[in-house]
Amino acid sequence: MKNLFKLGWVISGMLVAVMAVAAEKAAVKPEAKAEAVPVAVEKKTADQIVQNVCAACHAPDGNSVITLNPKLAGQHPEYLFKQLNNFKEGSRANAVMSGMVANLSPEDMQSLAQYFSQQTITLAKAKSNGKGSLGEKIYRGGIAKTNVPACAACHGANGAGLPKQFPRLASQHADYTYQQLKTFRTGERANAPMMMVIAAKMTDAEMQAVADYIQGLR
Q1: What pTM, to 2 d.p., does this model score?
Q2: Are 50 and 64 in contact (CB under 8 A)?
Q3: Do 101 and 151 sit in the same domain of this protein?
Q4: Do the beta carbons of residue 172 and residue 71 sit within 8 Å?
Q5: What element of type H or E holds 13?
Q6: How many Å apart are CA 117 and CA 202, to the nearest integer?
Q7: How far apart are the first and last CA of the chain?
Q8: Do 151 and 209 fall into the same domain?
Q9: Distance (Å, rounded) from C-alpha 201 to C-alpha 186?
Q10: Which residues are paired to 138 by β-bridges?
């Protein structure tokens, strides 16, 4: 009997020891995992984006030397921002520009719009559509027989446009303006319904004349 009692005490003691070790382990908290530290992403300035993305086609100061590429200098920032957004979302179709804006954030586009709006546009001259020309008559008075309104009604007598509504046209390349009028007429450019209706009523000769006149506005 004594041996049985001794065995019972031994077993009890072992159980107590095991429980104590388990409790001690449970009390030890696992080491906290180190939290990942976010890596700061360098924010590009408008100057950097212009040099890397825009300058090749539009020049660093927005005065493009390629006449099929628009001058951006002095353009209303609201208009520039809208066009960049339209290219990005696809409502203004252009394979080159869609690729250019693909990686631009809304903040990038706002910065670019502000940057180019603050540049000074290089003034130009009309080739042949000066005072009294067909181009002037269309710009200032429209085309009565086809119900084409005067360009000046929206874009101003001197082509300065109206912020938040209508772009500046003065001194824009005639080649670019003519090309845009044609794409409005064909529907290739569809992000300005009013211009699509107007352009649909114009002949190539009328478009060329008014585009040349606009180039000489200042």
Answers
A1: 0.81
A2: no
A3: no
A4: yes
A5: helix 2-27
A6: 30
A7: 120
A8: yes
A9: 11
A10: none
